[in-house]
Amino acid sequence: MSRNNTTEVTSDYTCVRFYVSTISFSVLLFFNLIINWAIVREERLRRHARFVLIFHLLVSALVHLGMSSVFYYQIHLDTRLSRSACMAMITILISSASNILLTLTAMALDRFCAVCHPMRYSSVCNKGHWPWLLGVFTWMVALVIPLSLLFKDSDAPDRGECGREQLKKGELQKVLFIGLCTLIILYSYVRILVEGRRLGVLNRRNRAGCRTIALHGSQLAVYLLPNFVNFVLSILYKREFIQRETKELSAVVVFAFFSLAQCVAPVVYGLRKEELLEQLSRRFPCCSRYLKSVLGWTVLSWWFDPPFPELTTSRNTSKSDVFLLTLIG
Q1: Which residues 6+ apart lie within 8 Å of 211 measured at CB?
Q2: Are the beta carbons of 50 and 100 closer than 8 angstroms?
């Protein structure tokens, strides 16, 4: 089948994208309420960069999934929007997605500084309101890409359409931005791995350390991989290696899988924090009881017992124990 004669198949998949976005948004909204409420209400948590960054990540993901639900719903209904409404929607979608990547990059750099420069980190990075200011700064940087694209396209005719074609503009800028963030994240974790090997933490016998590294990597992958997969699908389609139906079906499968994974990833990352678990158990005892059973495969050994009991009974803390506790946050 030629590309010119290919029928439009995106309408059915738009409905799927709407349902997936709505379900992911609903799940993440619940965890936003309990986790971010615990962070804001506890001064000890809201003064630490790692918890503030979790707050920013959850909010950014919630905004992105919520706007995705609205965006695909209006496409499904074939709604005619004004140019300003469409521009506002596209700006929120692109900027929130960009802010997720920027927050992940800041989290990787935060763990890099905490592991590789612990003295300087403890004396500087947990004082004042700079983590909250960092969140404002990342949002300002995240607005650069959508605003530049919108200004470049300001003379385009207004046809009342607000679809995925508008969302796909600026692929090269987006790929460069994603690639830069990915390189910074990879550099940070490579340095962390080198430091872990130097301290003798990351070996086959230390399953906790390897499991923590693997969990961090999987959480980063659910945000980074779909962007590269969609970019590869677009290249294959443009070079006519795959048909439009194959591209759209593959894209919606990738969207569904990674959207559901993304609504869980920041939650799992947050629940690995012992201080946050303590606050959730105290403020939301009913919820924490269910979270123990649902997410027990990732936090089982950390929820019921202190992660390193010897740290609470002995002053002779090894460097490897400090490394693993710092990495977990």
Answers
A1: none
A2: no
Give CA separation, 5 vs 1, 8, 167, 168, in Å: 7, 9, 24, 22
- In a domain, residue 138? The reply is yes
Look at residue 25 and tell me if it is in a domain: yes
Which residues have a Cβ under 8 Å from the Cβ of 47 and sit 6 or more positions away?
126, 127, 131
Write down the H helix ranges in the chain: 10-31, 37-41, 43-46, 49-76, 83-116, 118-124, 130-142, 144-152, 164-167, 171-199, 207-238, 244-271, 274-283, 285-294, 296-303, 309-313, 319-328
Amino acid at 129: H
Tokens of residue 32, six digits:
């936003």
Domain that holds residue 190: 10-328
Residues near 222 by beta carbon (within 8 Å), at least 6 away in sequence: 258, 261, 262, 265
Q: List, for residues 202-221, the tens digit of each pLDDT value.
A: 665 556 556 666 766 777 78
Q: Is residue 86 part of a domain?
A: yes
- The mean pLDDT value for 163-191 works out to 83
203 SS3 class: coil
Q: Which residue shows structure tokens 């919820």?
A: 287
Report the pLDDT value the prediction gives residue 63, as an integer from 0 to 100. 94
5 within a domain of the structure (yes/no)? no
Cα separation, 329 vs 324, whole angstroms: 8
Q: Please count the structural domains in the chain.
A: 1
Q: Token pair of 49, please?
A: 């960069």
Most confident range (mean pLDDT) of 68-72, 86-90, 177-181, 245-249 is 68-72
Q: What are phi and psi of 58, to 5 degrees?
A: -65, -45
Angle between helical axes of 49-76 and 244-271 (0-180°, round to 10): 150
Domain CATH number, residue 119 = 1.20.1070.10
